[in-house]
# Entry
Amino acid sequence: MNRWWLWAVGGAGVAALLVAGWKTFFSPDPGAALVVMLIAGGLLLLSPFVLPHLEALLVGAGGFELRLVRQIARHGAPGTARLLDNTELAEIAEAYGVIHTQLVGGTYYTVRKQVQDHLLTRAAAFAGQRTFDPAEIRAVFPVASGPVRVLLLGLMQGDPRLVDAATLTSAISVPVTATEQHQALVLAEANLRRFTEAERAPLLAAVDAADLGADDGDRRKIVDRIKAAH
# Structure
């Protein structure tokens, strides 16, 4: 893609963000995607790394618009990709992926947390409105990127059918991100009684051996509660 074209798109994005910002101040309930773009867009469009990521929004040969959705389809979950395609949720997940990898450090913690919370809340709500295939969720999770894994855990929070012990065990013992481990612990605590003894044993072992790093906050509290209850 020509560099000048990307700069033109970036300029249009700046103008769109200004309009979106003006509308947000006068709207009682701006959509989550609009909020995310206001949070992330202003920062991203001021940064030199934004240009390569604009390509994530280009339409692919398979008809899926976002790179994240194409990734899900490529990893064996075409039904899940179709449900997510052209949705606000996929846009939030794409923004989260860029922010999580590019805006690192304490300076941007609030931005990352806001977009992450939007992603999880919207994913849970979306799962309650659509019927996802649990087998596809299980298949794509092990090979998915960090942002996709967080998205899938959000879907699980909205639809217990999608929760399985093996996925949570993996997310707790070998997480790609701390957020993934945290959300898996939340789901483990809420769903332990649903699992068979054979499923609970490795999950509880993963909880017991979980590497929480320097965390002494929410994850540690969840682990302590699970241990105390079992």
User: Anything to note?
Assistant: Residues 163-230 form one domain. Residues 3-25 form the longest helix (23 residues). The two ends are 56 Å apart (CA to CA). Residues 1-20, 22-26, 43-51, 53-65 have pLDDT under 50 and may be disordered.
